[in-house]
Amino acid sequence: DTGVSQDPRHKITKRGQNVTFRCDPISEHNRLYWYRQTLGQGPEFLTYFQNEAQLEKSRLLSDRFSAERPKGSFSTLEIQRTEQGDSAMYLCASSSIRAGGSISGTDTQYFGPGTRLTVL
Amino acid sequence: AQSVAQPEDQVNVAEGNPLTVKCTYSVSGNPYLFWYVQYPNRGLQFLLKYITGDNLVKGSYGFEAEFNKSQTSFHLKKPSALVSDSALYFCAVRDIAGTASKLTFGTGTRLQVTL
What we know:
The complex is a heterodimer. By secondary structure, chain A is mainly beta. Chain A is 0% helix and 47% strand. Chain A has strands at 5-7, 10-13, 19-24, 31-37, 44-50, 53-57, 65-68, 75-79, 88-95, 110-111, 115-119. In chain A, strands 2, 4, 5, 6, 9, 10 and 11 form a seven-stranded mixed sheet that branches. The termini of chain A are far apart. Chain B is mainly β. The chains are: A mainly beta, B mainly beta.
């Protein structure tokens, strides 16, 4: 399977604990995105990377959240001191922007299966 | 700010009948528009996108969408629905005038196709 993969698929934790999620994008995709989806809502943008650089962060991304993409390949999203309001599906997506090859914004984002977080 | 509205929480259609899932958008410049489908406990699957050109866009699984600039709409259509099309459908927009690469999604429309 050469799609976007996420690990774990499900995570149950107690309030106050730290959790970390991993996303492996489609090979050679240089853009990677994180979204959060709560029940009955569409995905909401959290942050995105182009290669290893984090280019934008949403105001939804409080200081308890941190994302990294150290080598421009896989990415991790860490939530510190989890709260019940953090319970959601965390989705990762990747896309390809080729230098000089496509207009920014036209790239298609391909999503992984998500990590469902439940904070008790 | 960019936004998307999906006015129907649920659309019910009989198998074999045509289906339409509605979407309207608001952006400051010209939009890039996308449709995704989500099956239970799964991520989003890309169906189609409008970037420029022909207002009728064809996508995966027999779906198509019509871009209407004057009505700021991008409705998803299929000539003949299948039971297996039952899922949650999301419209999304990206504003090409903005610097962000993010997609802004609607709240989703649940499509229920019955025999």
